[in-house]
Amino acid sequence: MGWPLIGNMWSFLRAFRSQNPESFINNFKQRYGETGIYRTNLFGKPSIIVCSPELCRKVLTDDEHFQMGYPLSNLVYNGISFDHISSSGNRWFRRLTTSSLNQQESLSSYVGKIEEIVIGSLEEWSRMKQPILFFPEVNKISFKVMMAIFLGSATDDTVIATMEKYYTDVFGGLFCTPINIPGFAYNRAVKAREMLVKGIQGVLSLRERKPDDHPNSKRGLVDFLREAEDQKGEKLDDERVAIMLLLFLIAGRESSGRAAAWATLYLHDHPQVLHKAKEEQEEIIKRRPCSQKGLTLNEIKQMKYLSMVIDETLRLRTNIFALFREAKNDTYLNGFFIPKGWKVLVWQSAVHMDPEIYPNPKQFLPSRWDDFIPRGGAFLPFGAGSRTCIGADLAKLEISIFLHYFLLNYKLEQLNPGGPVNYLPSSPDPADNCPAKVIKIR
């Protein structure tokens, strides 16, 4: 259980501030054997770590005994009792959003908007004389996509830019000490959340006052949320809609943007993989009818090798080291007793780096996915069970479109290749945010 009060946080922080975060879980394995389940104390809570595919899958699919257990800051919920994080509420939200995010017709309708954002951003970067910070800039693309889907196509670009600034401050406050005093990150986050809510309310109010200003604009997810009734037969107020937007952005922006950026780096660091991925994209263009402009969902489904590149990136650069669950009641897991209220951390990064499942796990090898289907619980970039990320298909769609246009038309020149990586506060990013030049090649 580690030291009194602080538990194992010192060893956790030491490992994750090094360039070898796997050393934290490997230490448990060396001391106690390859059991796949360990007891510890992290983030001020007694916790169970599970890191075998079977146990990970068991926890993620057992809604009867395990519920969401993230240490989300009050910044997100602002003291509101929000039923939609419960199992029944989760099912309600998933039913409401699935048709908007995952159905083929919906995904197909997003292709054009994502293309427009990606093409415009890449062209802008290539014209810049000074290097860009590649990771934050790719995240901006993801943010624009998320906002377009959530708020609809009629949202002004200046509104999106302003909301992105507020969101960045809010996200930064999720992983810091909650000191609500001017000058501290948490205080900035509190103020930013207030402004973000006001911004959303302003957009919604404008639509109510002038519903015909944009007769051809596409409806956003927010429109479905505001029209729907929750389990109690009540409509969501603007505050709860803002919470939905925050959760939507946290899940979407941080995963798809980061994966697209890392995939680009891996491709440019592995010329043979880059050549093969580019050839596939060129073949798709050659087969296209002359009258067709832009990508189609069917073409994206044909990107088999690029899909392997994306899966390998998601395996290597898991966006968060663990998925947080909590025991709903006293229960047993693999014969071990787990008291009610204990955290259960599904250590997906350990599974993704297991040499028994993925030989040479630290190497970037997209070819390992050729005719390889991992067993249940062995590949968890989007979770599993009823809490599987509802935007997984949308995320892979966005990443595919970004890589398609980057591979065909651009190359990346990093200023500091091979630099150190920050694994905290939440996900792996280059410590310098990857300053680079984007150069147009055709």
UniProtKB/TrEMBL annotation:
<dbReference type="InterPro" id="IPR002401">
    <property type="entry name" value="Cyt_P450_E_grp-I"/>
</dbReference>
<keyword id="KW-1133">Transmembrane helix</keyword>
<dbReference type="Pfam" id="PF00067">
    <property type="entry name" value="p450"/>
</dbReference>
<keyword id="KW-0408">Iron</keyword>
<keyword id="KW-0812">Transmembrane</keyword>
<comment type="similarity">
    <text>Belongs to the cytochrome P450 family.</text>
</comment>
<dbReference type="InterPro" id="IPR001128">
    <property type="entry name" value="Cyt_P450"/>
</dbReference>
<protein>
    <recommendedName>
        <fullName>Cytochrome P450</fullName>
    </recommendedName>
</protein>
<keyword id="KW-0349">Heme</keyword>
<keyword id="KW-0503">Monooxygenase</keyword>
<keyword id="KW-0560">Oxidoreductase</keyword>
<dbReference type="InterPro" id="IPR017972">
    <property type="entry name" value="Cyt_P450_CS"/>
</dbReference>
<dbReference type="InterPro" id="IPR036396">
    <property type="entry name" value="Cyt_P450_sf"/>
</dbReference>
<keyword id="KW-0472">Membrane</keyword>
<keyword id="KW-0479">Metal-binding</keyword>
